[in-house]
Specification:
The structure holds two protein chains of two kinds. The longest helix of chain A has 18 residues, at 176-193. In chain A, the strands form four sheets. Chain A has a six-stranded mixed β-sheet with strand order 6-7-8-3-9-10, with helices on both faces. A five-stranded antiparallel β-sheet of chain A has the order 13-12-11-14-20, with no helix packed on it. A five-stranded antiparallel β-sheet of chain A has the order 15-19-16-17-18. Chain A has helices at residues 52-60, 102-107, 117-130, 146-158, 176-193, 204-210, 228-233, 238-243, 337-343; strands at 14-23, 26-36, 41-45, 67-72, 75-76, 88-90, 164-168, 196-201, 213-218, 221-226, 248-256, 259-262, 265-268, 280-285, 291-294, 302-313, 316-322, 331-336, 350-354, 361-364. Helices cover 23% and strands 33% of the residues of chain A. Chain A folds into two domains: 14-240, 3-Layer(aba) Sandwich (Rossmann fold); 246-364, RNA polymerase II/Efflux pump adaptor protein, barrel-sandwich hybrid domain (OB fold (Dihydrolipoamide Acetyltransferase, E2P), Beta Barrel), CATH 2.40.50. By secondary structure, chain A is an alpha+beta fold. Chain A has nine helices and 20 strands. The two termini of chain A are 19 Å apart. In chain A, a hairpin with an 8-residue loop joins strand 17 (316-322) and strand 18 (331-336). Chain B contains 24 helices and two strands. A two-stranded antiparallel ribbon of chain B has the order 1-2. Chain B is globular, with a radius of gyration of 26 Å. The chains are: A alpha+beta, B mainly alpha. The interface between A and B is large, with 46 and 42 residues. Bound molecules: adenosine-5'-triphosphate (ATP) and magnesium ion. Magnesium ion is lined by residues 52-53, 200 of chain A. The site of adenosine-5'-triphosphate (ATP) has 12 residues of chain A, from strand 2 and helix 1.
Chain lengths: 371, 567
C-alpha cells in the first residue's frame, strides 16, 4: 500500500507524487507515489525490467519523468537538472575514474570548492578510513578488488555530504561472501551517518535484511511499501506474496467472511479481506505455517497428504507434499529438523496437514498471480 | 502540499537544463555551423556551378552534355574506370595474400613485414611514382623490362596506385581475416575437406565483407588520386588530372565542377553498396567462437616468406632508389654522390620555405584538428538532449570520407573565392589550407575518437552531475587522459596526412603558402626529378622521425602518467 504521508506525521524527506515515465508508447513508470522519512533506508525491490533503475534515475534527475512531482527536503526538484539536486550515487559498475587513485576519486568533487589542499586530503583520508580501505588509498581502481572498488565508490558518493544516497544494485557484481559482509557494513555505515538512502535490488534477501522499508515494484507500479516484516507477513497482492519468500497458492471461491471453498471443501479463513460472494480468489499460505500431523486425517482445515520429497538443509527442512484435495500442484512445508524424526516423515509416508485459518491469506486473481 | 500534475498531465516534464549542458549544446551547435560552412555550403556551390556557365548564367545540363561529347573528357572518364578497376583487382589480390601471410601463417618476420607494408603511408603518393621513373623511365635501370612500353601512362599509373593503395587493403583485409572460428576449420577437417576446399568454403566467405569493403575503398582511392597520374601519367588523361587541367589550365571552372561531381560518383556508390552488403552481415564469429590456432606448415610458410620478402624488398627499394636518385649527381650517367639536390634554394627561390610551410600546415592541422575532432566526438557522445543536432554532426563528420580531395579543394574555390562571401579573406592564406586539410581528413579521426569514447563508462556523466562537477572538468581530468592514446593517434594521423597531401590543397595554395608536396609535382613537371626526389625523401624522413618521437613520447607518458593502465 502506498502512503503519501509517513505514519508518525513527521515531515517526509522525499516525496514522489504520481510520477510516470513513458518511453514512446511504453509506460515504464506508472503513477508512482510514496514518501520517505529522513534517515530512512529504503529498498526498491522488483523483478528485472520493472522500472527500479528508471525510478532511481528519475529521482536523481538523470532521466526526466513524463508526469508527476518530486519534493526533496521541502524543495520541488522535478524540473531541476541532476547537477542542481542533492544526491550521491553508486552504480553497479561503480563508474570509478580509472586514471585517478582511490584518494583522487574520493576527492574529485571536493576540489575547486574553496577547500584547502590539506582539508581535502584530510577529508579523503577520513572517508577512506570510514569505509575501511585506508591502506589502499594510493591504488588505482584496476589494482583494487571488486569489494574495495565498491567501497571507494561509496566513499566518493558520500564525500559531498549529500542529503540522499542512491545505490543501484551496488552489491550484485560481488561474489556471495563479500556481498554478505558488505551488506552489514553498508547498513552500519548508513545508520552511523544517518543519510537517507535508496537502494535498488532484485535480491529479496538483500532488501529484507537491509531496509527499514521496502518498495515492491511490478511493471512500473508500486505494489506495496512497508516494513520488511509486514511485506512478508501481510503481502498486499499475490505478486508481492510470490515475489517475497516462498508460498503455496491455490484457487478458491470466496463464500463469506471467514469461509472459502477449495475444490469441494469449505475451509475457514480468518483473512480480513472481503470479496463479493462466489468471487474466485487465491488462497495462500507460507510453507513454515503449514502444520504437519502424523497419520492421515481429513476435515475442516485438515487435509490428508503424501510426502513426495524431503530436503534437508541445516535446521530447517523442506518437505514437498501432494495434497490432492487442496491443490493439483504439490505444496511445500518447512519444519524444524528434529520434527522429521518425531513425525516420522519419510518419502511416500501418508500424513495430514493443517492449514491454520489465521495464517491463510486471500488475494484477488487479477494481476500477476502466476508469478 | 504537492500540487500533483497527474490530473492534467503534460506529455513531458521539461527539466531546466544545467549550465554546462547549455554551453555544451551551444558548442555542438558551433561545430555544426562550422561543418555547414566548411562542407555543406562549398559542396552546394560546386553543385550550382556545374549548371552555370563561366559567367554565372544558368545553363541547365549543358555542361554535362559538353562533358559527354568532348572526346578528351569522356575518354578520361573511361580511362579512370579502367585504371581503377585494374589497380583494384591487383591491389586486393596482393593485399589479400599479404594479409593472409600476416594473420593465417606462421611465416617468420611477420611483424617486420607488417611494418614494411605500411611504408607507402609515410610518403606522399608521389614517391612511388618517382621511384618507378628511376627504375623504368627512359633512363631507368630496368627499362628493358618494359619491352618498349613507356612507364609514363597506364602501366606506370597502375603500378604507382597499387603501391599507394596497398597498405589500406592490407589493413582492412587483415582485420577481417583475424576474425575466424577454429571450430569451422575443425569441422571441415572432420569432413576430410582439403586445404583448398576449406579455404574456398570457409576462409573466403567469412571475409567477404572485408573483401567488399577493401575493393570499394581501393577503387575510390585510386579513382580520385591525383599524385600518381600527375607524376607518371604522361599524356594519358584521367579524371583526376583532367579536373586540374580544366581549372588551372583552361580556367573552365564549370567543367571542373562537372568533373568534380563525376569524381564523387564512385564514393557515393560505394557508400550505398557498403550499406546494402553490410545489412546482411551475419557474423560467422560469435561470442563462443574459438580463436584460430595456426599450425606450422613448412611449404606454406616458405612460400609466404618468399612472397613477403619480395613485397618488403620492393617497398624498401622504392624508398632506397628514390633516396639514391636524390644523392647522385646525374642519374644514371654520373653516379658520384652529392648533396647538391638538397640545396632547394638553388632549384628555385621558394626553396626551403615550402618545407617550412608544410611543417606549419601539419602542425596547425594536427593541433586544431585533434582538438576539434575530439571535442566534436565528445559532444556527439555526451550532450543529453539535441538528438537531431548530434545525429547531424555525426553525419557531417562521416561525409568527408566520401569527398575526394580535389573536389573539396575545387568547392572551396567556388565558396571562399566568392567576392560576396565575407569569409573570402581566408582565400590564399594558410588558414584555408589548414581548414581544408582538417575537413579532408576528418572522418577517420572522428571514428578513432568515437571508438575510444564509447569504451568509457556512460555513468561518468551521472557521477559528475552528482558531484556537481562540470562536464568540462570531466573532459579535462577524466575523459581526455583516458583517451590519450587515441588522441595521440589522431594527432599523428593528421600530421602525416597534412605533410603528404596534394589533392585538396593543390587548388588552394598561393605564392605565399607553397607546400613541399606540391613542389614535388611542380619540379617533376619541370623535369627536375632529382630535387623532387630529394624533397620526397625529406618529407619521408620528417614523418619517420615524427612517428618515432611520437611513439617514444607516448611510451614515456604512459610510463609516467598512465600507470593506472597496467594492473
Ligand atoms: N532508454 C530506454 N528506451 C526504451 N525503453 C527503456 C529505456 N530504458 C529502459 N527502458 C525500459 O524500461 C523498463 C524498465 O527498465 P529499468 O532499467 O528501470 O528496469 P530495472 O527494474 O532496473 O531492471 P533490472 O533489474 O534488470 O536492472 C524496461 O522494460 C526497459 O526495457
Ligand atoms: Mg536496473
Amino acid at each position: 500500500m502506498s502512503r503519501l504521508k509517513p505514519p508518525d506525521g513527521e515531515a517526509p524527506y522525499l516525496t514522489l507524487a504520481g510520477v510516470s515515465k513513458n518511453y514512446g508508447a511504453i509506460r515504464v513508470l506508472d503513477e508512482v507515489s510514496f514518501s520517505i522519512r529522513k534517515g530512512e533506508f529504503v529498498c526498491f525491490l522488483g523483478p528485472s525490467g520493472c522500472g527500479k533503475t528508471t525510478l532511481l534515475r528519475v529521482i536523481a534527475g538523470l532521466e526526466s519523468q513524463s508526469a508527476g512531482d518530486i519534493q526533496q527536503d521541502g524543495r520541488e526538484i522535478a524540473r531541476l537538472p541532476a547537477s542542481e539536486r542533492d544526491f550521491g550515487i553508486v552504480f553497479q559498475s561503480y563508474a570509478l575514474f580509472p586514471n585517478l587513485t582511490a584518494t583522487e576519486n574520493v576527492g574529485f568533487g571536493l576540489k575547486g570548492r574553496g577547500l584547502s589542499r590539506t582539508d581535502i586530503a584530510r577529508r579523503c583520508a577520513e572517508l577512506l578510513e570510514l569505509v575501511g580501505i585506508a591502506e589502499h588509498a594510493a591504488k588505482y581502481p584496476s589494482q583494487l578488488s571488486g569489494g574495495q572498488q565498491q567501497r571507494v565508490a561509496i566513499a566518493r558518493a558520500i564525500a559531498m555530504q549529500p542529503g540522499l544516497l542512491l545505490l543501484d544494485e551496488p552489491l550484485s557484481a560481488l561474489d556471495a561472501r563479500v556481498r554478505a559482509r558488505l551488506r552489514e557494513e553498508m547498513r552500519d555505515l548508513q545508520r552511523k551517518l544517518g543519510i537517507t538512502t535508496i537502494m535498488v535490488t532484485h535480491d529479496q534477501d538483500e532488501a529484507l535484511s537491509m531496509a527499514d522499508r521496502v518498495i515492491v515494484m511490478n511493471r512500473g507500479r508500486v505494489e506495496q511499501f512497508d516494513t520488511p516484516s509486514t511485506i512478508y507477513r501481510d503481502p498486499s497482492t499475490a505478486f508481492v506474496a510470490h515475489f517475497v519468500g516462498d508460498i503455496n497458492t491455490t484457487q478458491a471461491v470466496f463464500q463469506d467472511r471467514g469461509q472459502v471453498q477449495v475444490g469441494d471443501r469449505l475451509i475457514a479463513c480468518r483473512s480480513d479481506r472481503s470479496y463479493l460472494a462466489s468471487t474466485t480468489v487465491l488462497v495462500s499460505i507460507r510453507p513454515e505455517e503449514v502444520v504437519l500431523r502424523p497419520r492421515a486425517a481429513s476435515g475442516g482445515n485438515v487435509f490428508s497428504a503424501t510426502v513426495e520429497t524431503v530436503e534437508f538443509s541445516g535446521i530447517l527442512s523442506r518437505i514437498r507434499l501432494s495434497v490432492p484435495d487442496f491443490s493439483q500442484r504439490p505444496i511445500h512445508a518447512c519444519v524444524l529438523g528434529n520434527q522429521i524424526e518425531a513425525l516420522n516423515i519419510r518419502e511416500g509416508e501418508e500424513l495430514s496437514v493443517a492449514l491454520p485459518a489465521e495464517k491463510l491469506m486471500l488475494f484477488s486473481v487479477e494481476g500477476d498471480a502466476a508469478c | 502540499m504537492l500540487n500533483s500534475l497527474t490530473g492534467h498531465a503534460p506529455s513531458h516534464i521539461v527539466q531546466k537544463s544545467a549550465r554546462d549542458e547549455r554551453s555544451l549544446t551551444l558548442l555542438l551547435g558551433a561545430i555544426f555551423l562550422f561543418q555547414i560552412v566548411t562542407i555543406v555550403l562549398p559542396l552546394c556551390f560546386l553543385l550550382i556551378r556545374s549548371v552555370q556557365d563561366n559567367d554565372g548564367g544558368f545553363v541547365g545540363l549543358a555542361n554535362f552534355r559538353r562533358f559527354m561529347t568532348e572526346a578528351g573528357l569522356a575518354q578520361a572518364a573511361i580511362n579512370s574506370v579502367f585504371i581503377s578497376s585494374i589497380s583494384t583487382v591487383i591491389t586486393v589480390s596482393l593485399g589479400f595474400a599479404f594479409a593472409y601471410l600476416l594473420t593465417r601463417t606462421r611465416t617468420p618476420f611477420r611483424s617486420t613485414f607488417r611494418a614494411l607494408s605500411m611504408i607507402p603511408l609515410l610518403a606522399p603518393s608521389l614517391l612511388p611514382a618517382l621511384a618507378l621513373i628511376y627504375l623504368f623511365g627512359q633512363k631507368g635501370v630496368l627499362r628493358d623490362l618494359m619491352f618498349g612500353h613507356s612507364i609514363y601512362g597506364p602501366i606506370g599509373i597502375v603500378m604507382a596506385e597499387v603501391i599507394f593503395a596497398f597498405p589500406q587493403a592490407v589493413l582492412i583485409l587483415s582485420t577481417s581475416l583475424l576474425m575466424a572460428d577454429q571450430r569451422l576449420y575443425d569441422a571441415a577437417l572432420a569432413m576430410r575437406a582439403g586445404p583448398v576446399r576449406s579455404f574456398l568454403a570457409i576462409t573466403l566467405p567469412s571475409c567477404r565483407y572485408g573483401l567488399v569493403s577493401a575493393t570499394l575503398a581501393v577503387f575510390v582511392k585510386v579513382f580520385t588520386d591525383f599524385g600518381a597520374p600527375a607524376v607518371i601519367g604522361g599524356s594519358y588523361p584521367v579524371l583526376a588530372t583532367e579536373i586540374f587541367k580544366q581549372v588551372i589550365g583552361l580556367f573552365d571552372f564549370s567543367m571542373g565542377a562537372v568533373v568534380g561531381l563525376c569524381l564523387l560518383v564512385p564514393a557515393l556508390l560505394s557508400f550505398i553498396i557498403e550499406r546494402r552488403v553490410l545489412r546482411g552481415n551475419v557474423s560467422m564469429v560469435s561470442a563462443q567462437s574459438v580463436p584460430l590456432t595456426i599450425k606450422p606448415n613448412r611449404a606454406r610458410d616458405l612460400a609466404f616468406l618468399i612472397f613477403g620478402g619480395v613485397v618488403g624488398i620492393c617497398f624498401v627499394a622504392l624508398v632506397g632508389i628514390t633516396a639514391f636518385g636524390s644523392v647522385v649527381r646525374y642519374w644514371p650517367y654520373n653516379l658520384s654522390l652529392t648533396w647538391a639536390h638538397y640545396n632547394f634554394e638553388a632549384v628555385d627561390n621558394t626553396g626551403l620555405s615550402v618545407y617550412a610551410h608544410s611543417i606549419l600546415l601539419a602542425l596547425l592541422t594536427s593541433l586544431f584538428g585533434t582538438a576539434l575532432v575530439f571535442l566534436g566526438a565528445f559532444l556527439v557522445e555526451t550532450v543529453r538532449g539535441a538528438a537531431q543536432l548530434r545525429a547531424a554532426v555525426h553525419f557531417l563528420s562521416m561525409v568527408p570520407l566520401a569527398i575526394p580531395g580535389l573536389v573539396l579543394g575545387l568547392s572551396y574555390i567556388f565558396f571562399f573565392n566568392n567576392p560576396d562571401n565575407p569569409l573570402n579573406v581566408v582565400y590564399g592564406t594558410m588558414t584555408i589550407l589548414v581548414l581544408s586539410t582538417i575537413v579532408h581528413f576528418y572522418t577517420v579521426p572522428h571514428l578513432i575518437a568515437l571508438t575510444a569514447l564509447k569504451q568509457i563508462d556512460r555513468e561518468f556523466n551521472a557521477v559528475c552531475a552528482s558531484l556537481r562537477v562540470s562536464r568540462y572538468r570531466m573532459l579535462r581530468s577524466i575523459v581526455a587522459p583516458i583517451c590519450l592514446p587515441a588522441i595521440v593517434d589522431i594527432w599523428g594521423y593528421l600530421f602525416v596526412n597534412a605533410m603528404t597531401t596534394v589533392s585538396a590543397v593543390i587548388f588552394l595554395f598561393s605564392a605565399d603558402t607553397q607546400l613541399a608536396s606540391i613542389t614535388i609535382v611542380r619540379w617533376n613537371d619541370a623535369g627536375k626529378i632529382a630535387p623532387a626526389s630529394a624533397m620526397s625523401i625529406v618529407i619521408f624522413v620528417t614523418i619517420a622521425v615524427f612517428m618515432l618521437l611520437k611513439n617514444l613520447l607516448l611510451a614515456r607518458s604512459i610510463h609516467s602518467t598512465q600507470q593506472w593502465r597496467s594492473r
